[in-house]
Amino acid sequence: MSRRCRTLLIALTLVALAGCATHVEVAGQFPTPVTRRLPISVTLVLEPEFRAYRLAVTEPNEVSLAVGESQADLFRTVAGAMFQGMVSAEALAPPAPTDLILLPRVEEVQIATPTETQLKIFEVWIRYRLYLYDAAGNAIADWPLAAYGKTPSRMLESAGDALNQASIMALRDAGAALITGFTEAPGVSAWLAAHGALPAGARASP
Questions:
Q1: Which distant-in-sequence residues (6+ apart) come within 8 Å of 128 by Cβ?
Q2: What CA–CA distance (Å, rounded) separates 123 from 38?
Q3: Dihedral Cα 164, 160, 60, 53, nearest 10 deg
Q4: What is the C-alpha to C-alpha distance for residues 162 and 23, in angstroms, rounded to an integer?
Q5: Which of 18-27, 159-168, 195-204 holds the top average pLDDT?
Q6: Tell me: the pLDDT tens digits for 101-136?
Q7: Is residue 84 within 8 Å of 39, Cβ to Cβ?
Q8: pTM for the whole structure
C-alpha cells in the first residue's frame, strides 16, 4: 500500500470515529498482585454508585464508558492481596468486623481520543479519593489516587476496543498506586505503627 493510500485510510478512519457514538462496558482481567500482606483486616466498601459508575460525554464525540464493575473487581483483587483478611460491604456502617474500613470513590474520569489529541492514541485518566476509617468509624485518612492508561489506535481495532484497553491500563495503574502508596499516605503509617502493623523498614508519618 502506498504512503498516500495509508494516509488517506487513516484520515477516513478518524472521520468515521468522529461521527460515531462509542459505548464501552469496560471488561478485563486483573491478576492477583504479588505483595506482602499487612497483618490487619479490612472492610472494602463498594457503594452502588461506585459499582455503577459511567462516564458520558457528548463533545467532541458521544462516548459512554462504564468502568464501575471493573473498578470494583480491581479493588477487590488488590485489597484481597494487600490485607490478611478482607470482606466487602455496600455501605459505610461501623462498627465493622475488621480492623479498618476502606471506602474508594470516583472524583473524575477523563478520556482523550485521536480526534482531540491528533496523536492517534486513546487515553483514560481516573482520579479517586480513598477514605480510611477504623472499626468504630473514626476517620484515619483520606487521600487522592490518580491513575492513567493509554493504548495506540490500530487500523484493525475499534474505538471501543481501544478505550477498553486504555481503561484497563488505568485501573491496573490505580491498583499499583494503591499498593505502593498505602503505607505512606498521611495518617495511615501512623495508625499502622500504633497497631504494630507497619512493615519492617517503613517509617511512620503523621
A1: 104, 105, 106, 107, 144, 145, 146, 147, 174
A2: 33
A3: -50
A4: 12
A5: 159-168
A6: 999 999 999 998 776 656 668 899 999 999 999 999
A7: yes
A8: 0.84
